[in-house]
Design a protein that fits this description.
The protein has helices spanning 124-129, 133-151, 185-189, 207-212, 215-230, 237-250, 255-281, 286-294, 298-309, 315-336, 343-367; strands spanning 4-12, 24-28, 31-48, 53-56, 64-67, 81-86, 89-93, 105-121, 169-175. The protein is α+β, with helices and mostly antiparallel strands. Strand 4 (53-56) and strand 5 (64-67) form a beta hairpin. The protein is globular. The chain starts with a strand and ends with a helix.
């Protein structure tokens, strides 16, 4: 079929609150990609403890569930898709059947966002069958990390952090029209992209938008994401680590890992800030800086170095620095003395670290 577009269709297990159909162009060293939110999908997971259900493979049906105990088939029409995700577990996307809830089955709702990753291809059939998954994941991860940084939504995870059963991947291709053949990829992305449903027939659920999304916030988030992509303002290592700490705290309830992520984020952040200052303002050589950095600790940086560089801290800001200094001693107790840390301590550490990072960034912007 020659040159055209490859649509990589991903069911991402969270609500991504962006304008549906708006294309965000992500530029990499390997080329450019378009990312768009197509729609939101409601899924129902069925845990079948007594192992009574099975997928009905009659070609006259569309992936229906049937009971091993009878000949009855759950009335799931062609707009739905059933996926077996374990010996006693099924996932039904946009389920509208009438199967009664019993003690042997548990039903739980989940929400997905259908994300389409668009790439240009000189041979769409070859790229459809032999995709570069690592590259696609890296592009999507960068986009998701930026979205997470903007909306502070802790359940947004990298693709590699998801279980295989959490996402349903599919592909579609289309050749360029005669009008598109002489256009740049950016110009093609600005054109119309038909919302292509997955071949397995997942049906969008309008109620998702009514319940979770707000039109004004969607517009604003989309505007901010687009602006930051245009300005190449992606997420730095510190923000990414703080985001990971929030995920460990609020999604995984792993307070120890969350606290340690907060500490390492603050430690690397303040060391890099002092390093950059000495390199730019004092014009020290890299050799001197490396020798100096070997002897630096976060306690010394917060006790001495930071006050030598900045002398405009008020009392409230000094109190915040004292709280950040306390992270170091707590970290040592967690690592070396196996001391526990609870949710309240971890949440306070996360909030204080975000305030500290914002404070130091503002202070250094005034002197550099």
């Amino acid at each position: 079929m020659g040159k055209g577009l490859v649509y990589n269709i991903i069911m991402y297990p969270a609500i991504i609150n962006l304008n549906k159909g708006q294309v965000f162009e992500m530029k990499t060293e390997e080329g450019s990609y378009g990312v768009l939110v197509s729609r939101h999908v409601n899924a129902l997971q069925i845990l079948d403890f007594n192992n009574e259900l099975e997928i009905h493979e009659d070609p006259n049906y569309a992936n229906n569930l049937s009971s091993k105990m009878s000949s009855e088939v759950a009335p799931i029409d062609s707009h739905h898709f059933v996926q077996q995700i374990g010996e006693n577990s099924f996932k039904v996307l946009d389920f509208t059947g009438t199967d009664e809830v019993s003690n042997s089955r548990v039903f739980s709702n989940e929400f997905y966002t259908e994300i389409i990753l668009i790439q240009e291809s000189n041979n769409i059939e070859e790229d459809k069958t032999s995709p570069n998954y690592d590259l696609l994941e890296n592009v999507l991860d960068e986009f998701l990390l930026l979205y997470k940084d903007v909306v502070k939504q802790s359940d947004i995870r990298k693709v590699n952090d998801l279980n295989d059963r959490d996402m349903i991947l599919s592909k579609a291709v289309r050749a360029y029209t005669d009008d598109e053949k002489d256009k740049t990829f950016s110009e093609v992305l600005d054109g119309y992209h038909e919302m292509r449903p997955l071949p397995i027939g997942i049906k969008a659920t309008p109620k998702v938008s009514d319940v979770f999304l707000n039109e004004e916030s969607t517009e604003e988030i989309s505007r901010i994401i687009n602006h930051r992509i245009e300005e190449n303002d992606f997420v730095d290592d510190t923000s990414a680590m703080i985001g990971k700490a929030a995920e460990e705290l609020y999604v995984r309830n792993n307070y120890k890992y969350a606290f340690l992520d907060v500490f390492f984020a603050v430690e690397s952040f303040i060391m890099q800030k002092v390093w950059d200052y000495k390199k730019k303002a004092l014009e020290l050589s890299n050799t001197k800086l490396k020798n100096h950095k070997k002897n630096l600790t976060i306690s010394y940086l917060l006790d001495v170095e930071i006050f030598l560089i900045i002398n405009s801290f008020n009392e409230a800001e000094k109190d915040l620095i004292e709280k950040i200094k306390g992270l170091s001693s707590k970290r040592n107790k967690i690592v070396h003395e196996k001391e526990n840390v609870d949710r309240k301590e971890t949440e306070e550490a996360l909030i204080n670290s975000e305030e500290f990072i914002k404070l130091i960034n503002n202070k250094f912007s005034e002197i550099l």
